[in-house]
Amino acid sequence: MKLQPDKSSVQTITALGPGWIGVQADRIEHSVVIGSRGQRDAWPCKRFEDLTAEHFAQLAEIDCEVVIFGSGERLRFPQAAWLRPLIAKRIGVETMDTAAACRTYNILAQEGRDVVVALLLEPAV
């Protein structure tokens, strides 16, 4: 599925499929953190059940306005306690399924917002 116009001045998610996303010309098949300022880091988590407070503490170290958490194929919420480091830094947090997180990230990034998306990309079955 194509997610964005052909031209963009910021890093955008250009495609999405089961267990993968496209960022510009790259295909990514592992959980990843992507930012509108160009950051792209592996996020070491293969399944929602593997998430820990440390995964969200890593996100709190990134200076941004808002973090969008893409929870996989379906909407699942992290434990509230895991979000404390983000809340303490006054970083907004939104949770949605990964497809919705990709679309929302692209819109906010195109608007010039300082946004980060943390995508849980579970292996395709």
From TrEMBL:
Pfam short name (any one): DUF498
Protein name in the entry: Xcc1710-like domain-containing protein
Species this chain originates from: Pseudorhodoferax soli
InterPro entries found in the cross-reference section: MTH938-like_sf (IPR036748), NDUFAF3/AAMDC (IPR007523)
